[in-house]
Task: inverse folding
């Protein structure tokens, strides 16, 4: 069983004149009163008694007190702690009656339980480090956080590149009617030369036709002349007639071939050669736009892949936390900061902050079953009741102060004493009787 505070007696400590307190073994015990009446001095007295000289108040002795400060605390494990005398020397007695010292108290008294504001005022990272140290997964969780951060940074950079490439591609001009590849001037010139060669061959055949036609006409004229000399030149005419017939046949064949010939135009190629630079400029523009779009798509795909990896890493990290033995359900660590039910410390309600702090401090030393809390004015009555019920569920004892004189307070401190407490009167001693004299009597 964890150790609880069973009773406190304090005299002449800070503002305390004389206070006796018997707190509830579990739940919330509230020390109430107005300001500057000695409420916080009760907590300081407990912290000094149990925590040793490092918790000794700067002005431990009450101003104006004749007797020295005196503290006595009884604990549930039977240990009695007492400070008294001019030097407030410490006496720690265990249940067997043997004396011990601060080392015995340190075994079951958690320093943060005596100074909870120290935990509550720590940085987010310090709180997270304490929690991770308690549940024993600090190193592994840090490694996973570093992996997630590296992936997140890489994904962010990839996303930025994808957007840049996308915007760059959108701003580039494209030419839908341009060829897919740059045009080669040498290919165009080669095609032009082939056409010119074919056209030259056609011209040669035309010239051949004209030459044959000319020769045919000459043969005809000669045939007419020979007709006049037919008688004389019958034999000669026969030969010329044969020649004419042959030439005529050849001429007719040549004529048919010439009529079928069609010259090819080089105008389109000549225009292409003239416009080749403009065409190739359009082709290059299209290729550049296509490459930019492809790069943007690749970066976008990589961004999505990294998002899936990060999601899985975060799920693994959450599984690690969920599998840990947490001091309080709902606790976690996000980006190196302590969270509770998804909220960071600054966003938690005051009651949730106290609940988290008490649970973590309790886990730091399970043998310590109490915490000291100062200034619970931030809690309304409903929240106080809920907090007290939670403390009882956790079998945890909390002794707290509150600027109040209401019914929620177990005791009220007024001018360094418990209000309405029976005063301790000094012992009555009989006064010596005075002799009475009677007139006339000797």
Result:
């Amino acid at each position: 069983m964890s150790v609880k505070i069973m009773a406190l007696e304090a005299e002449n400590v800070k503002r305390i004149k004389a206070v006796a307190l018997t707190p509830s073994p579990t739940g919330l015990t509230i020390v109430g009163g107005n300001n500057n009446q000695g409420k916080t001095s009760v907590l300081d007295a407990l912290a000094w008694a149990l925590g040793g000289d490092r918790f000794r108040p700067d002005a431990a002795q009450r101003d104006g007190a004749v007797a020295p400060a005196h503290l006595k605390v009884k604990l549930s494990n039977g240990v009695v702690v007492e400070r008294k005398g001019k030097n407030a020397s410490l006496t720690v007695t265990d249940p067997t009656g043997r004396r011990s010292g601060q080392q015995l108290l340190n075994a079951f008294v958690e320093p943060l339980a005596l100074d909870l504001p120290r935990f509550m005022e720590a940085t987010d990272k310090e709180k997270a480090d304490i929690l991770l140290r308690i549940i024993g997964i600090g190193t592994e969780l840090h490694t996973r956080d570093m992996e997630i951060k590296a992936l997140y940074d890489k994904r962010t950079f990839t996303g930025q590149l994808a957007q840049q490439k996308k915007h760059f591609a959108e701003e580039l001009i494209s030419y839908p009617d341009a060829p897919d590849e740059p045009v080669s001037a040498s290919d165009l010139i080669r095609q032009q030369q082939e056409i010119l060669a074919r056209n030259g061959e056609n011209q040669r055949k035309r010239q051949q036709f004209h030459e044959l036609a000319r020769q045919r006409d000459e043969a005809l004229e000669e045939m007419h002349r020979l007709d006049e000399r037919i008688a004389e030149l019958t034999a000669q005419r026969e030969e010329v007639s044969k020649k004419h017939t042959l030439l005529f046949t050849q001429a007719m064949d040549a004529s048919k071939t010439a009529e079928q010939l069609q010259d090819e135009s080089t105008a389109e190629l000549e225009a292409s050669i003239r416009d080749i630079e403009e065409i190739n400029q359009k082709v290059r523009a299209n290729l550049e736009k296509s490459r930019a779009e492809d790069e943007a798509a690749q970066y976008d795909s990589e961004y999505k892949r990294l998002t899936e990896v990060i999601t899985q890493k975060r799920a693994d990290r959450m599984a690690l936390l969920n599998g840990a033995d947490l001091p309080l359900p709902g606790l976690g660590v996000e980006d190196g900061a302590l969270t509770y039910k998804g909220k960071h410390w600054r966003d938690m309600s005051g009651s949730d902050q106290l609940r988290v702090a008490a649970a973590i401090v309790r886990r730091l030393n399970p043998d310590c079953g109490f915490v000291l809390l100062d200034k619970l004015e931030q809690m309304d009555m409903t929240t106080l009741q809920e907090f007290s019920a939670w403390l009882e569920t956790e079998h945890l004892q909390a002794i707290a102060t509150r600027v109040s004189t209401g019914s929620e307070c177990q005791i009220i401190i007024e001018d360094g004493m418990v209000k309405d407490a029976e005063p301790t009167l000094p012992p009555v001693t009989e006064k010596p009787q005075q002799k009475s004299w009677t007139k006339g009597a000797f």
Confidence is low (pLDDT under 50) at residues 423-442. The CA atoms of residues 108 and 368 lie 5 Å apart. Residues 185-283 form one domain.
